[in-house]
Amino acid sequence: MTRRVQILVALALTALWGAGIFAAHAGGHLRFLDRLEATLTDWRTQVRGVQRPPDLVTIVAIDDTVVKRGGSYPLPRADLARVVDTIVQFKPKVVAIDLLLVDRSAAIGDATLANTLATGPMVLAAAAIFPSASENVAPGSAGPLAVLPQAERFLLPLPAFADHAEVGIVNVATGQSGSPLSVPMLFRTRDKVELSFPLRVATRALDKPLTIAPDHLMLGDRAVPTDTDFALPITYYGPRRTIRTVSAQSIFDGTLNRAAIENRIVVIGASVAGGGDFYPTPFDSLMPGVEVVSTAITHLVAGDGIVRDHRVHIADALAAILLPMLLVGLLAWRRSALGIMAAAAVMIAWAGLNTFAFTHGVWLNAATTLAAAVPPVAIFAGVQLWAGGRRTQYLAAKSRSLAQFQAPAVQEWLARDPNFLSKPVRQDAAIVFIDLSGFTSLSERIDPDALQEILQAFHARIDKAAVDCGGMITGFLGDGAMILFGLPAAMPDDAARALKCAIDLHRGVEHWIASLPSAIGGQLGFKIGAHFGEIVASRLGETHQHITATGDTVNVASRLMEVAVRNDARLALSNTLLDTADFHGAPDGVLSGPLLAQVRGRSGVVTVWFWRDRDGPKQAAAKAEAID
Q1: Rounded CA gap, 396 and 399, in Å?
Q2: How would you classify the pairing of strands 186-188 and 193-195?
Q3: How far apart are alpha carbons 49 and 322 in whole angstroms?
Q4: Which of 5, 182, 281, 567 could form a disulfide with 231 if both were Cys (CB 3.0 to 4.6 A apart)?
Q5: d(Cα 569, Cα 576) in Å, to the nearest integer?
Q6: Residue 133 pLDDT
Q7: Which of 366, 42, 26 is nearest to 228 (CA)?
Q8: Degrees, nearest 5: CA angle 44-46-52
Q9: In angstroms, rounded to a whole number, what is the distance separating the alpha carbons of residues 582 and 565?
Q10: Rounded to 10 degrees, what is the CA torsion of 370, 215, 203, 170?
Q11: 137-152 exposure pattern, b = at least 16 Cβ within 10 A, e = fewer
Q12: Burial class (CB in 10 A: 0-12, 13-18, 19+), 575
């Protein structure tokens, strides 16, 4: 299967995964995504920050001050009648009582409250009773209203009160985090549909007809965008009391400000500690239910609610399919850091767009898109890494098999990737230099054929050490060589492999010299320098090119051989190489130093260590022979 076909298959599977995730979540499955979405919604709300709400609603709170004065909760009906009567006298648009008046009380108190309710525009709260804790009940009939939460029954106010007011269902829908994220606008039982409490209040306050369209509501000529189940998404303006709130105690004290009531929507509700409903919100841990309801009322009347309608859900579906495909495509386009950075940039852009949309009134789902994107991207990236590792292993094996003949190995390498190092590459790498001492004077005294055999045997030692440690011989320099660790790509263990190569060379060449006739071996010595740092790898030449490395790291590695000679040593290692290789010595070797050495042609000093075999040349020769 070609790479192009593999990419097309990966993109097709990614699209199917995204579509499946979206469909499963939209169908009521994958509920864990709701908790994630609730958390992300809280975070986006906090990013948006506290906002000034439209000043349309006043909450008259039956709070701790009122309870302390009256000595009991719920508030006696006579006292509630006094609160309502005072508010009505200040001419509000509508009075909404967010209290369940479902139980009989003292006859005089009930009668007084009933008479008071008849004096102004009133909306009373009712409750929907569901068969379980969940309000998401499977629809039992066809049509647009089949998606409504179906209750077993409605808990309505006493007829004496309901006869003088409109009634709305006060239930809210809480997310997995417990925070109300939406308020259903319509409820149903088997034979009846009721409006929600906020919708009743808004309809009465605006004095406009309500129309129920198949996928939205109309208040007069203004569309109210709702979710697919006719729920109104809500976002909070701020912490509790962000919406104008006055204590009902001001009515009993005679200090209620008329401006807080006149021509306004007034919601009477409980905020007593230990009484009434409280919910966690992004801004505080306990917000009274009356303020949640008042937030929904404000959204309906002002038209400033957040949009999460069928058009937004279409955008969510497209994001769940297209974003993962784009990310996988970017990773396939560039199997390198560039592809990863491009994919990361797209994810950051998506997160920014999602947050921007939320803060400007459009609620795009984040959790579903993440669930659609993360698994296929992670799997594809893992497969890419695995395939890259296999390819690297293959190339390394081929390189080792051809390392005896350096030129053919380089030619095949360039044949696989003709553009390799066509432009210089700056990267970290390890460099090992080795050079024979006394070879020039020896060449003046022995036969050229014998000299060639000595040189070939020396090169064979270098070849073996380089191949065994995964290094690349960039070139033989007559009686020396330079070995590079870091091509075709930098690896985390480049320094460690270079260090092993240097020690193996030390032992191997020492053994080889000791095995030569004394007339020859007595004239030869060697020196090794190894360093780690930044290099510039490139191809030099026009018709006849060769791969090489340049830079200060190469110069330092070469000059370390001189440092070794000056200090009666054969192997000099830079402190940088040892630190990068995390080397602290070995039981069979002696590491001496550090020495602050001046390197020819370079300002400053280099921290140098010297290595020798603990057991001396004879035992080292035996070890090298055993390795051979």
Answers
A1: 5
A2: antiparallel
A3: 30
A4: 182
A5: 19
A6: 47
A7: 26
A8: 115
A9: 25
A10: -50
A11: eeeeeeeebebbbbbe
A12: middle
Contact 116, 161 (CB under 8 A): no
Q: Are 123 and 94 in contact (CB under 8 A)?
A: yes
Both tokens assigned to 23: 């469909």
Distance CA 298, CA 201 (A): 10
pLDDT digits (tens, 9 = 90+) for 579-606: 999 887 776 888 888 999 888 877 788 9
Residues in the chain: 628
Indicate the pairing of strand 122-129 with strand 94-98: parallel
Alpha helices in 288-309 (DSSP H): 289-302
Which residue in the block uniquely carries the two structure tokens 């306990």? 286
Mean pLDDT of 33-61: 91
Instruction: Report residue 533's pLDDT band, with 50, 70 and 90 as the boundaries.
Output: very high
CA distance 582 to 129: 69
Q: How far apart are CA 549 and CA 532, in angstroms?
A: 12
Q: How large a percentage of the chain has pLDDT more than 90?
A: 43
Whether 556 and 564 have beta carbons less than 8 Å apart is answered as no
DSSP designation for 277: -
**Range picked from 102-116, 177-191, 442-456 for highest mean pLDDT:** 102-116
Cβ–Cβ under 8 Å, residues 565 and 527? yes
Distance CA 18, CA 377 (A): 11
In three-state secondary structure terms, 270 is strand
Pairing of strands 217-219, 210-212: antiparallel
Contact 248, 62 (CB under 8 A): yes
One-character DSSP codes across 376-432: HHHHHHHHHHHHHHHHHHHHHHHHHHHTTSHHHHHHHHHHH-TTTTSS-EEEEEEEE
Residue 596's Cβ-count burial label (10 Å; 0-12, 13-18, 19+) is exposed
Q: What is the pLDDT of residues 459-493, one digit of tens each?
A: 888 888 988 898 888 877 768 899 999 887 788 99
205 vs 301: CA distance, rounded Å: 8
- Tell me the pTM: 0.60
Taking a C-beta distance cutoff of 8 angstroms, is the pair 607, 596 a contact? yes
Could you tell me the CA-to-CA distances from 457 to 468, 513, 522, 621 in Å, in that order?
17, 10, 16, 16
pLDDT in tens, 402-441: 444 343 445 555 666 667 777 888 899 999 999 988 887 8
- Amino acid type, 485: F
**Does the N-terminal peptide bond of residue 594 adopt cis geometry, omega within 30 degrees of 0?**
yes
Distances (CA, A) of 89 to 70, 83, 247, 512: 23, 10, 17, 112
- Angle (CA) 68-70-74 rounded to 5° is 95
| SS3 assignment, position 597 | strand
